[in-house]
Prior knowledge:
By secondary structure, the chain is of the alpha/beta class.
Amino acid sequence: MKFTVSLKSLFLFFLSSLTIGSTKAYGAAGLPDLSEVKNHSACKLDVESCKAEYPISNAQFPFYISKGQGKIDKVIIVIHGTDRNATDYLRDFITSNDSETTLANTLVIAPHFLQVDDQHSAQELSWVHAWENSWKFGAKSESPAAVNSYAVIDQLVKSADISLHPKKIIVMGHSAGGQFVQRYAYGSQVRKGIQSSLTYVVSNPSSYLYMHDERWLDNKWIQPLVQSCPDYNLYIYGPKGRNDYFAGLSDSKMESNYLQNNVFYLMGTNDVLTEDLDQSCGANLQGVNRITRAKNFFQYLNSYYPGQTHQFLMVEGVGHDHVKMFSSEEFLKILNK
């Protein structure tokens, strides 16, 4: 089942094309009418029936969506991992939380970033496999149009704000989705154009984007030899050579923007295994496993940006498990903050 766009949405889509800058103006009102969105319990039973399509740059972007029974005051956009299993992420998120109480006033959106060899229609956006052009890191789609993956989330956030006027919007991701959100938060300035409060949640990512040359090695900040690790300060691990989503943002503006965004880091203390861990040289300089890399990055924030307000929350006894992270008390604190 695919939702159609209402006349009101079409009008807002047209209006947005006149008022939003051309570089990222893909439309800002493409969510289905709330009356057409199935509730959480229905999506648990048949998640495929909760698929929708977002009109963007003469193409379609697929996502899955469900709602609570009450008046919507929170919107959660949950980014899937490397497996691109958006259906699992929607179903797992609403199943791991009590949708009748915790999510009663919540709309949940699970974007689906397709790769070119995934099964999809010719109208749906898809990205190539190569990591440097991956959806994970803000590259443009390969077909049928060139749309930056971070810009897609900007538009979903704008749409939720325009259509629903929620008190809070949360953009969160686990694993590869956590990598997505962490880099996205450096460049996203969408908070400036919306009325809702906006929160980013980075959960158990494999690596981080640093803005300085130094890394925490031998219990101190030192600058590694580029000859021994050529990629360590290139995007995605550092700021050099970043893609066009960050165009117009100098290093200092990127830093300032990141610190102004409301970011939480939600980490499982037992996320120590190296299976599916990025083990490139640039990633390994950040630490031996995900929890160590998280602690090192948070130490970096506190060392280089004294007084910064990002928050680091530890989920005790949990490893690389998105279901347990979603249902943790620490996440509920973020949800209800």
